[in-house]
Design a protein that fits this description.
heterodimer, A: alpha/beta, 7-stranded mixed β-sheet, 6-stranded mixed β-sheet, globular, B: 7-stranded mixed β-sheet, 25 helices
């Protein structure tokens, strides 16, 4: 029953495919029998589980726009089983939201565990400073990113925890750049490794501030680790070039490139995508990824740009199991990356046009 | 990689490295105050418009760039008359010396939006029209349309001055350091784009630099309850939603239907969707150019389908169009490209529903009856709408229309004031319109037109409003025409002239005694002149009841008289005892005829008049030509350089006189006569240029009148001048009556008969005893030689009854009757 098994998150092969397919069938039935809307939806698309004959047929599972879940509540579980209600920090009136039962939430966490173990980042005995580029929790904070970053703190023993976005007591958060710099300086002195998680834009702003203050580069413990997630946009709505930031981190903080990674995920689809050593987003065994033509919605071959679609069976609270994201992306065969992982990877290339929903990052970046 | 030279900088293409160097050099000419004359901008734009039309390129720009539409824009947006320029202080009050001028901001930055091909270019044109130097930033991924067009524009200004005022660089929004440098020395930055673009620039430039923001806008249509069953409205709206693929900010993205019933709304939407698709198929579909836009449209449709499945909305998707019926009223944007929302909205809820987005609303296309218009237009205006049109005409605009509720040109200039004391009374503006008075229109190649040629020429353009009888010295009277705009322009300058001549609108009580009616221009134009000055006026005209005129003057304490000399002399006759006693007339302004020195003397001595000046020097055909300030000699005039160009040309040869010693013909070219060409018109007057500055401080060209061209005649091989005869008789014997010269040839000799009026009794005696003849020969040396030395010309002085004077067709006395030709 819809559980995470096995040790290699990027496992390939027949057995893995079989598990995926049977779990998916099971999951479809779960939602169908519990969610009237979803049942009607599949009917209207003339879909039945028999269509899913092999792993290649997963693309035939009708997809739902990620944005749909932001605006509509359509549960496949009783209200009482809602374990976590996460919202994404939208700046417009409509916050995006997602409902998790305990199982779905744990599934997502187990996937992260698995990937962290795979890369050797799960070091429960290691003492670290946490520098979290995310929102300092307040009483009723339910923002997805904070939850994620807190949860990530279990992989190493916290010596100290420092938030970059401090609650100002007025229901808002201020970016505390000097606090971040002080934290980094402390870590350079005591040589305890630092784990930096969260929004890249604020880390970028911290490094920019260090440069403009003509600070000498810091030499953090080389076991320090940067794991970014969320938006790459800054105040002016311009993108920070990723590789430029990575090289800045190496220069200014002394953290090796191998230990700088970006993560991609969203509350509408909780499978984590974490960069390999070549900074590519390989697809773990818990999901399938398709790229669809923006006009015809047909599945596109490798390297062609279109909508990013995820299929995953590890979501039981809402029928977010085949989700069409607003992000535009390309898919690439594993052979295009020299790392050891054998699954394909995708590259994010921006969002859908003029009225595109805003991602988490925009509100945070407006505080820069 | 070697750098492409694609940045336009003062007429040349440079690399971005060079750009940085130039930007850091504050001595670069681009950072100096603008020195742009409007005429060059207008001419270059007009030339570009013609060039694009000829090449069939950028057709959308042709109408906008035409000189006439730009002039209309300037007139409406800056309130500038055609003969005014930014940068001239114009008097705004006759009560006290207060002046105002527009001044360009200086160096104006422009940030082009990414979604529009021409907005950046057009923004620069508006910046130039308002006199600024302009630096345009286009997007990192934009083409080079603006660069190319502005380079072309610069080349079309022969003086080269225009391109000195233009810079265009393609700079990515990410390159914040360069952008900061780019806008650092600007005096204002016009930003076009979405909220994030506006915010990006706000964060970039110093708060002391004014930002002129042109933010995002949304437009919608409204169908009133009354028009729910009107098929014509449906068709118009359907077509509207296809035009320009809705990419214009004035295109509708939502159609509000005034209905409280879901069923009615859905039925309307269904019939609309059918017509929409039907019409759409007849209009070629433009390809969506960006994948993001296509993605947006697809997502919108997908969401519509999902929400239809939920029963919240109703999507009606056809091959080329899609419509989503929403039962909520909230205004939302559609993904364009033939897609629209259809939502219910009651007019009573305009304000509340539109409130959150009231600053972004632009155009509302209405389907309603004319009876509903007052109510709906008021409610929509209160709700934030800036443009109201009939459905189907949402994209149509007119020259000089406000953009997003504002006049663009006014946002690119500032108002500067100047206050002074009464020592500036008489000055209507400070400084001259330097560029306007530069000799552009002298059109050296154009032939000089005599009055006869002018009247024969087919120079009327059919757009006239006003028709005046023009002198027509020979035969049938002709008509001279003006548009109202041109007329008021001339009259305002006429007012400036009268003000310079000492008329004080604060205190003077004026009686207008010019002839009116019968298509004469005199009375009506001085009515307008006085009106333009805000002066007190008694519109008497040349009334025949002189007693009534006299009592009005006395009873109303009138102190200023305006009229024709012949009428004025009749009024101020030696017999008018009341006026003699009144002595309250202090100022006399005349026009139409000359006022002799002896007449001036008589009026001053007997009636206490202190200022006698010409009210204006001009003609019906040419309009006002000159005025007299208080420092002008009696026959000297300043030229109205804000109205016309004046040349002084040799009598015998069509070239300009070489010195101010020489008498020549006055040739005028009027710049603001759109109903009739007045080009190099020989006004028929003999003049001399007066050199040196005038004591009044005005720098305008001055002339001295030396009589009519027709006053010159040749006898015995020499040129003689009628005016000289008149002057001598007036000066030596105080004769003020009419004089006519008749020239005959008898027995191979020529003779001049001087006819004077029998009506002047004091003069009879002098005439009879030969004193008049003696004075003429004494004072006119050339004549003396002909008559007394060479003995080739006979001279005879006679007194005749006034009715014996020979008149012109227009009722004026002829100065010279030459009987030799026939």
């Amino acid at each position: 029953m819809i559980t995470i098994e096995g040790s290699n998150p990027y496992e390939t092969g027949l057995k893995s495919d079989e598990i995926f397919l049977s779990t998916l069938r099971e999951c479809i039935d779960w939602h169908r029998s519990r969610n009237q809307f979803y049942n009607h939806f599949l009917k209207s698309k003339n879909f039945s589980s028999e269509i899913l004959t092999d792993i290649g047929s997963c693309s035939k599972l009708p997809f739902i726009l990620a944005d749909f879940f932001k605006r509509h509540v359509t549960l496949s579980i009783p209200q009482s089983e809602v374990f976590a209600h996460m919202t994404s920090s939208g700046t417009t009136g409509q916050k995006s939201q997602m409902f998790f039962d305990e199982r779905s939430l744990r599934a997502g966490q187990t996937m992260v565990d698995s990937i962290f173990q795979h890369y050797g980042w799960d070091n429960p005995d290691m003492k670290v400073h946490y520098l979290l580029y995310s929102y300092e929790p307040t009483g009723n904070l339910s923002l997805g990113t904070s939850y994620t970053d807190n949860f990530l703190c279990k992989y190493a023993k916290p010596e100290t925890v420092h938030y970059a976005l401090r609650s100002n007591g007025l229901g808002q958060h201020d970016f505390d750049v000097y606090g971040c710099i002080a934290k980094l300086e402390q870590a350079a002195r005591d040589q305890i490794p630092v784990r930096i998680f969260g929004f890249p834009s604020f880390l970028h702003a911290t490094l920019e501030k260090m440069k403009s203050r003509e600070m000498q580069p810091l030499h953090l413990n080389s076991s320090s680790f940067v794991f970014l997630g969320g938006g790459w946009k800054r105040a002016s709505a311009t993108e920070i070039p990723k590789l430029e930031l990575y090289s800045q981190i190496q220069t200014m903080l002394g953290i090796p490139d191998l230990r700088i990674r970006d993560g991609y995920g969203s509350v509408e689809h909780s499978v984590p995508y974490i960069e390999c050593r070549n900074h590519e987003f390989h697809i773990p065994r818990w999901s399938k990824v398709y790229i669809r033509d923006v006009r015809t919605l047909e599945v596109l071959p490798y390297k062609e740009k279109g909508f990013l679609q995820f299929v995953t069976p590890y979501m039981t609270s809402v029928p977010a199991i085949s989700v069409l994201m607003s992000d535009l992306a390309t898919l690439h065969p594993s052979s295009d990356c020299s790392c050891e992982i054998e699954t394909p990877f995708f590259k994010i290339l921006g969002r859908a046009g003029t009225t595109a929903g805003r991602s988490c990052a925009m509100q945070a970046s407006e505080m820069l | 990689m070697s750098e492409m030279k694609e940045t336009l900088w003062r007429g040349n293409f440079i690399s971005s490295e060079e750009l940085e160097i130039f930007l850091k050099d504050t001595s670069d000419p681009i950072f100096q105050p603008p020195r742009l004359d409007l005429k060059s901008v207008l001419n270059a734009c007009d030339a570009l418009s013609k060039k694009l039309a000829a090449k069939g390129q950028h057709l959308e720009l042709i109408g906008f760039l035409k000189k006439a539409s730009l002039q209309e824009k300037i007139k409406r947006e800056l309130g500038l008359k055609e003969n005014e320029e930014i940068g001239t202080f114009r008097r705004i009050s006759y009560e006290s010396s207060r002046f105002e001028r527009w001044s360009p901001l200086g160096l104006l930055g422009h940030v082009a939006p990414t979604n529009s091909l021409y907005t950046g270019f057009l923004s620069v044109i508006e910046g130039l029209l308002s006199g600024n130097r302009c630096l345009l930033k286009t997007g990192g991924s934009d083409g080079l349309v603006a660069q190319t067009l502005l380079y072309e524009l610069g080349k079309l200004d022969p003086s080269g001055g225009l391109s000195e005022h233009i810079g265009v660089a393609r700079i990515s929004s990410q390159n914040r350091d360069l952008l900061k440098l780019y806008f650092r020395n600007c005096d204002g930055v016009a930003v076009w784009g979405g909220h994030s673009a506006l915010k990006g620039i706000r964060d970039l430039v110093s708060p002391s630099i004014p930002l002129i923001e042109w933010g995002p806008k949304i437009s919608f249509a409204f169908v009133s309850k009354e028009k729910l069953n009107d098929l014509e409205s449906v068709k118009l709206l359907a077509k509207q939603c296809c035009e320009e693929e809705q990419l214009a900010c004035s295109s509708p993205q939502c159609i509000y239907v005034e209905s409280n019933s879901d069923e009615e709304l859905v039925n309307w939407a269904k019939s609309f969707a059918d017509v929409f698709e039907e019409i759409s198929l007849t209009i070629p579909l433009s390809q969506i150019c960006s994948i993001e836009e296509q993605a947006d449209l697809t997502k919108w449709n997908l969401m519509g389908e999902l929400e239809t499945a939920l029963g919240e909305k109703l999507i009606i998707k056809n091959k080329s169009t899609s419509v989503i019926v929403d039962f909520q009223s909230k205004l939302e944007s559609s993904p364009l490209h033939r897609s629209t929302w259809i939502k219910p909205l009651d007019r009573r809820n305009f304000r509340s529903v539109l409130f959150p987005i009231r600053h972004e609303i632009q155009t509302v296309g209405l389907c309603c009856s004319n009876q509903e218009l007052a109510e709906l237009s008021n409610l929509l205006t209160e709700a934030g709408a800036l443009r109201l049109t009939k459905a189907g005409s949402m994209l149509e605009s007119f020259p000089g229309e406000a953009h997003d509720g504002q006049y663009a040109l006014q946002r690119y200039v500032k108002k500067v004031t100047l206050q002074w004391d009464d020592s500036l009374v008489g000055l209507a503006h400070i400084g001259s319109c330097a560029s306007l008075s530069s000799p552009e229109n002298k059109s050296i190649n154009a032939p000089i037109q005599t009055k006869a040629a002018f009247q024969k020429a087919d120079n009327l353009k059919g757009n006239a409003h006003l028709y005046f009888k023009s002198g027509g010295s020979s035969g049938a009277p002709k008509l001279s025409t003006f548009t109202y705009d041109d007329y008021h322009l001339q009259m305002r300058s006429g007012g400036d002239g009268l003000y310079a001549a000492g008329l004080d609108p604060r205190v003077d009580r004026c009686i207008n005694l010019f002839y009116g009616g019968g298509l004469y221009g005199g009375f009506i134009s001085f009515f307008s002149v006085l009106e333009s000055l805000g002066a007190i006026q008694f519109p008497m005209a040349a009334h025949t009841d002189l007693d009534f005129v006299t009592s009005t003057i006395v009873e109303q304490k009138i102190n200023t008289v305006l009229g024709m000399p012949s009428y004025v002399m009749k009024l101020f006759s030696p017999q008018n005892e009341r006026l003699r006693q009144y002595r309250g007339i202090k100022k006399l302004y005349f026009a139409g005829e000359h006022l002799l020195e002896s007449q001036r003397h008589y009026l001053k001595e007997n009636f206490g008049i202190e200022i006698i000046r010409s009210a204006a020097y001009g003609s019906v055909d040419a309009g006002p030509i000159g005025f007299q300030c208080l420092h002008c000699e009696d026959s000297t005039y300043h030229i109205f350089e804000d109205l016309l160009d004046a040349e002084v040309i040799y009598l015998e040869e069509d070239k300009p006189v070489s010195s101010d010693k020489e008498i020549g013909r006055l040739i005028v070219t009027s710049r603001f006569r759109s109903s009739q060409n007045v080009i190099r018109y020989d006004i028929g007057d003999l003049v001399r240029l007066v050199s040196g500055p005038c004591l009044c401080g005005r720098t305008s060209k001055r002339i001295e009148l030396k009589g009519r061209t027709g006053d010159l005649f040749r006898v015995g091989g020499a040129f003689l001048n009628y005016q000289k005869f008149a002057q001598i008789i007036s000066n030596s014997h105080g004769y003020e009556g009419p004089m006519q010269l008749e020239i005959m040839r008898t027995n191979f000799r020529e003779s001049i008969f001087i006819y004077l009026s029998l009506e002047d009794p004091t003069f009879q005696e002098k005439l009879l005893d030969g004193r008049v003849m003696g004075a003429i020969l004494d004072y006119y040396k050339d004549l003396f030689e002909l008559v007394s030395i060479e003995k080739v010309v006979d001279l005879c002085v006679k007194a005749v009854a006034p009715r014996e004077f020979k008149m012109t067709g227009a009722g004026k006395m002829r100065h010279i009757v030459d009987l030799r030709e026939s």
